[in-house]
Amino acid sequence: MAEKVKEQTPPVQMKGGGMRGGPRVIGKVGKPDKATVKRLLGYIFKDYKFHFVLVIVCILCSSLAGVAGSLFLQTLIDDYISPLIGTESPDFTPLLKVLCVMGAIYLTGMFSTFFYNRIMVTISQGVQKKIRDEMFENMQRLPIKYFDQRTHGDIMSHYTNDIDTLRQMLSQSIPQAFSSVITIVSVFIAMVTTSVYLTIFVIITIALMMLVTGKIAGRSGKYFVGQQKSIAEVNGYIEEMINGQKVVKVFCHEDATKADFDRLNDELCHNAREANISANILGPVNNNMGHMQYGLVAVLGGILAVNGVGGLTLGGIAAFLQLSKSFTMPVNQISQQINYIVMALAGAKRIFALIDEKHEDDNGYVTLVNAERNLNGEITETEKHTGMWAWKHPHEDGTTTYTELQGRVVLDMVDFGYTEEKMVLHDISIFAEPGQKIAFVGSTGAGKTTITNLINRFYDIADGKIRYDGININKIKKADLRRSLGIVLQETCLFTGTVMENIRYGNLSATDEEVYAAAKLANADDFIRRLPQGYDTMLTENGAQLSQGQRQLIAIARAAVADPPVMILDEATSSIDTRTEAIVQKGMDSLMKGRTVFVIAHRLSTVQNSDVIMVLEKGRIIERGNHEKLIAEKGKYYQLYTGMFELD
Amino acid sequence: MIKTLLSRVREFKKPSILTPICMVGEVFMEVLIPLLMASLIDNGIEGNNGQGDLNHIYLMAGLIMIACILSLLAGFGGGKFGAIASTGFARNLRKDMFHKVQEYSFENIDKFSTASLVTRLTSDITRVQDAYQMILRIAVRSPITLIFSLIMAFSINAQISLVFLAAIPILAIGLFLIMTHAHPVFERVFKRYDKLNSVVQENVSGMRVVKAFVREEHETEKFKGVSKSIYDDFCKAEKLLAFNGPLMQLCMYGGMIAISWLGAQLIVVDNALTTGELMGIMTYAMQILMSLMMLSMIFVMLTMARASMERICEVLGEESTLQNPENPVTEVKDGSIRFRKVDFAYKKGGSLALTDVDLDIKSGETIGIIGGTGSSKSTLVQLIPRLYDVTDGVVEVGGRNVKEYDIEALRNEVAMVLQKNVLFSGTIKDNLRWGNAEASDEELERVCKLACAHDFITSFPDGYDTYIEQGGTNVSGGQKQRLCIARALLKKPKILILDDSTSAVDTATDAMIRKAFREEIPDTTKLIIAQRISSVQDADRIIVIEGGKIDGMGTHEELLASNEIYKEVYYSQQKGGDDNG
Fold it and tell me: How many Å lie between the alpha carbon of B87 and the closest alpha carbon of chain A?
């Protein structure tokens, strides 16, 4: 009977605790297209064929038991009770017999209900889990571009709202619809055999009911869509304002914020009210139309019977009345599920769109393997961890060559644009030898971060070549390429888990000692040990309990524990004070001795000791050389550098 | 708790009361209609000694029609008022919560995480809205149906109605057992759901890290683990709930058979019951069981909503730790700042973030503040616009204790550019006008030139009307900082605080901004927190702060001569932080 209750609560899609909200793209609740339905059913049939057949059989039994029950009630009085009235010694045996038969039928129905409910749980939860897992697995393979183009709230809503509507449909709407259809068909047959005329009348009134239902449902559908839109807006607004709450307070902007919120809130209230009203009145309207129909059938039947038209008996009318009641109920139930089904299909469509999204393509075939040198000094592949790595390069002629991983990175006349129309990098050429420290300097938006994003292939270049140890990076498997690059990003992202787990993220097989060593290197050991539970302190919400600088230190330790031949530091120390930075840098320098490091920084002091400093402007390298050379050139770098002393 | 929530019904009291009244009307009609139907069969179709009494049929059918229309009206009213009352209630709750959050001090805000506040304002309210509507409509309806139906059944025949007394306890005990077993599992599931969401959320926002470390499979495994545990728990809980249907059927079908048997005895042997009455009792039996089922569902919903209600009340009950004083001072005389023996701790009894700070800053001075990561630089300046209250000691602005001022007046004169700053979705103009809603376009341009933002703004195709995405993601970090500075300047404050606000701005631009400050707003007291010595070395005085204490104060030259920390920082930046440079 859960459906009954559900009908009172319109499907407001705002479940899920950890949701961050944000503006969501609410797909148009249009007509459910066939492909979506087919695909959804495919999930059920593929893994749960047997279960599903069993469910159908059980639903059939359960519905038929219900129909048998109402049919029995009509015959009970006429066939088993009335004949006994007035008899001298009434014989209750037939009644007892029929009651026993009914008991058996009921029992079958009961068990069927029980089984189909339980099996349906397995099916519906299983399908949900499968879709959920598939969605996540696919999401992991999407290119960074996908995440650039969408808000977080938008992607999150697939896991919260869309899956939620699906649950509603799978666990309730589908079995409900099945059982309703079976009931309708069997009752319809019983009705036709009783009286064709009355059946026609019932059909007409039910058509009328459907029409009214359709009108109301259409109206409510419109407002439900409006409600979803309003909810998304309110969510987005709340998220934005609460995120910026401190700014609101500093500017005494509370009243303006309240006024804006009230406007959105009132709009949501209006839409929610209208949607609820329509959903709420559907029940009483249908119920009472059913009652009215009952009365009208009685009158019509009475007239027919009294005038002897259509061979209708009085008992027949009574039976028919009961049947018509059993007929309208499932019709009502189906009509109430329509909203859910439409919404769930719209949700399913969005989910499938995510699953179908094109994966980050990877045609790389060069892989990274553990290597060692044999007696002849040749590089060979080995199972064990030797500390030496090599690129395994299979050739078309069947031979395989091994190239030692050294960290030589060459960019040759690279052009790149996030969109085809607008290039953000032009003619970038960089030669990074193993052991070199290459720095990028330039104003924000000059393209520094973009270059590093190309090296690890977050984005693919438009023109030119990037070679890694002499191999075109397009030939290297992305996973192996990235494994060979350590990176500390501008925006520090930590995961829920202990400090230990967060550092170990860089190298899942690192021992505790290796983690401590990495933390010491990043100068993070001290403050971590001073945390309440030391390395076992739980970090939540991206390490909200730490300062920006401390988060950066952990991120550096995370990259250090990976011990990569090439390291990219993108503003990795921007929030760390210069004294601490100096200590961290010393540690990094000793770690990266003989390896390649790319550094991006605003502070010139951070990059001063680099082997090569590239000065970027508007996507072009305008100056290159070491500190002394650039100072001597008296160009842009010189201006930036002296900018520090300009006011002396 | 209930009282706190109910006091928010306010203007929706009328529909809140009308809803149950309508529902009672509907129930009354619903109980009446089977009676009329029974009479239609007994006295109409089977009346007139089994010949059928058309007149009675007409009469009863007419009455049924009237009853239906009345019932329809009542149901309509109940549905409508219920919707108005519950959505209105939700609206008021949401409004009150949002407004309350606006009243929060920084200390209050720190207590709740952003995500938790958002959830409380959205999904929790929706759950309460549903529960409220449920109570107004069904919680009134079901018990009344139950009572009416019981009365009717007993009035027809008390003996046979005793069957109910047997069925009700069975149903009640069964439901109770199911609920008590399923509830804890459901509670666990919801927690797991939060975890699942947080895994997804972290992955979406940290996708670059995941990909950079090639942890896609690791994350997928993590996700599947949580996903599996949800699957297991949900299966467990819902399989328990699967007992609901059969239990209900057991009572219903069992009741039917018992009533049929007993009814037959009564009709045939005792002549104490008519067949029509038997049908009537059957109808009531259905209604009784249905309403019991409904009550059990409400019970489940309410337990689920209870957690949400508690979370909402927590927000509403949180009192702002900062209160406006009585007879507040609304005028800030000048931009002088004084700290007298100030101690500060973020938590009562917690460790001190600031200890024994004494400061004297004259109006119009430029003060630089330098210190290591976590040395409480930001904490110090946040006390000036009274974002937090001191734990001990006094902070004075313009010669008066900051606690004496009207908070708004104080903050209008003390403009602060926060370290973690935010731009809001809207045009650049919209964002700037946060500083001063009435500012003219010329005024906007002037402050943007001061903050060195004018040039890049005009380089955008839409200039000052460029739309800023949520969080300012479509402008660079340095541009964002300059817009934030311009926004603060628009307030024409007496005190301007920059909390590491030019860290992403290049040194030349940084110098230009400071030059503009010196020339254009000489009377404004300026406090500049920075990591770069170059950002502060031309200040009138520089404060070196270390571990929540003032380590030294003076001009660049003085500190260079006397302060070890300052010296160290200075040389580390001069020489590139390394000896091999």
Answer: 6
pLDDT, one tens digit per residue, over B5-47 is 888 888 888 989 899 899 888 888 877 877 787 777 777 766 6
B chain contacts of residue A294, beta-carbon cutoff 8 Å: 37, 64
Based on the fold, state whether residues B76 and B190 are members of the same structural domain: yes
Q: What is the CATH number of the domain that holds B507?
A: 3.40.50.300
Cβ(B470)–Cβ(B424) below 8 Å: yes
- Encode pLDDT of A192-222 as tens digits: 887 787 888 888 888 888 888 778 877 777 7
Record the pTM: 0.73
Q: Does B45 touch chain A (CB under 8 A)?
A: yes
Statement to judge: residues B213 and B163 lie in one domain: yes
Residues B446 and B509 in one domain: no
Q: Are B46 and B173 in a shared domain?
A: yes
Instruction: Provide mean pLDDT across the span B187-210.
Output: 78
Q: Sort B346 into a burial class: Cβ within 10 Å, 0-12 / 13-18 / 19+.
A: middle
Chain A: nearest CA to B556, how far in angstroms?
Answer: 11
- Distance in angstroms (rounded) separating the CA atoms of residues A402 and A257: 63
**B323 is a domain residue:** no
CB A441 within 8 A of CB A464: no
Residue listed under structure tokens 């955008």:
B460
B76 touches chain A (CB under 8 A): yes
Beta bridge partners of residue A410, listed in sequence order: A431, A467
Q: Which residues of A touch B109 (CB under 8 A)?
A: 245-246, 249
Find residues 31-90 of chain A whose CB sits inside 8 Å of chain B: 69, 73, 76-77, 80-82, 84-85, 87, 90
> Where in the sequence is the domain holding B221, given as residue range(s)?
2-317
Convert the pLDDT of each residue in A147-187 to its tens digit. Answer: 777 766 677 777 877 787 788 788 778 888 888 888 888 88
Rounded-to-integer distance, Cα B33 and Cα B29, Å: 6
Q: Are B98 and A550 a contacting pair at CB < 8 A?
A: no
Answer yes or no: do B75 and A284 touch at CB < 8 A: yes
